[in-house]
Amino acid sequence: MKKTNIMFRLYLKYLAWFIAFFASIALVFVPMMPTVLSLMGFESFLGITFSGETEKSYVNVLLMGLDKDETRSDVMMVAQLNLESNSVNILQIPRDTYIQNNRFDKKINSAYGAGGPERSIKEVQTLIDIDIDKYAIVTTSGFRDLIDAVGGVYYDIPMDMNYDDDLQDLHIHLKAGYQLLDGDKAEQYVRCRYIYPNGDLGRVEAQSGFIKEAIDQIIERFGTDKTLDTGKLLSTLGDMVDTNFTMSEMLKYSPFLLNINMDHVNIMMLEGQAEYRNHISYFIANKAKNDKIIKEYFTPNISEADLSEIQARDEAIGRSVEEYNVADSMLSNILPSDINVFVLDYSGTSGHLLATTVNILESSGYKIVGEAIAQTATADKTYCVSSPNSQLSSKVAADLGLEHYHINPDYNNNADVVLVLGKEE
To answer: Are 75 and 11 in contact (CB under 8 A)?
Structure first.
């Protein structure tokens, strides 16, 4: 097995551990969330009080997976949780990346042995123009244990997979079809590459699909399955992960992480090329190309925001929101005067769009039960949201001349419809 393939497989399992670690923290403290949100300034949709206090709207984390001797980082990646854009951006750094230092070993993976996570952070920051806030380190292996601990992952195996390699202790025997993969079968799938016509590229694509599905199911399961043994899972993950996140920071970031839409997860690799220097193989980073990546994915448009505004927006829209065409809807005969609407302005127009929209709705007979203007956070577009049972958002959207309405499967707002005004309108 090629080294790059081994690194990618390790990268996948370390990323899954990271997501599961924060998901488990969130689940344990779900009963505390109303208190936490209250402290953040978020009360209810019929009485929103934004805190008015701004703080950093993103966090950059260096994720590392150590070798068996715990002297080198076999896997390094920078993950940014952007609260305002509701996204996670991940940049993988090859372990053989050349870094100028005073050591004989010029590979960035030796930084950990030279000075722990602090040294690793310092050298990563000289490589790419990103300020690293936190670190999370996986110190032991356990991909199969993790998948088993969360109850497995449902996945559609595209074809029968059969391969044996005694030298690599690799034995793959999977049947095609949608099925629940336990830890052993999940590892078989992410390691398989020989059956794909395009070899390594096919496996990389398969691995990317699996890890996104695994993260999606893990987050969903933590939010709904109350039978999970979270104490055992936390203990297992605690043995795997060393981090400088405080408990209060985990509580702060976990709700945002659990609300991430998988369409907003971007995974990329440091740009560069392999090269020999002094008879040693290195990965030489391409500064110009990497500066472009950093500017596009890791430079937030909003560096500080009122987190209570973001929390209210994400809660209103919902993580699994579904979009429908107004033209295809079966409009209800219910009168506008019987529909309560709460309007949240995330358009960045200082309340101008809010005033216009409220005037239209009130003129049409709708009852406006509340309104609020976000001063720092924005929404990418306008969302007209209601529950699957009522679908009243279709009628409101039609009267506003919108092309789409939205259904939130987890809708629990007191208003019949929540209208989130976005930047595009």
So the answer is: yes
Q: What is the percent of the chain where pLDDT is above 90?
A: 41
| Contact predicate 74/66, CB 8 Å | yes
Q: Name, in order, each residue with C-beta under 8 angstroms of 384's C-beta and a sequence gap of 6 or more.
A: 393, 396, 397, 400, 402, 404, 405, 406, 417, 419, 420
Token pair for 152? 């497995």
Token digits of residue 190: 């992410």
Nearest to residue 218, comparing CAs of 167, 181, 188, 252? 181
Question: Token digits for 25?
Answer: 């923290």
Cβ atoms of 92 and 62 closer than 8 Å: no
The CA-to-CA distance between both ends of the chain, in Å, stands at 52
The DSSP element (H or E) to which 405 belongs, if any, is strand 404-407
pTM for the complete prediction?
A: 0.74
* SS3 state at 224: helix
What token pair was written down for 419? 């209208």
Which residues have C-beta within 8 Å of that of residue 113, sequence separation ≥ 6?
71, 72
**Rounded Cα distance, 2 and 18, in Å:** 25
Give the β-pairing of 73-82 and 241-243.
Answer: unpaired
Tell me the pLDDT tens digit for each residue of 294-320: 999 999 999 999 999 998 899 899 888
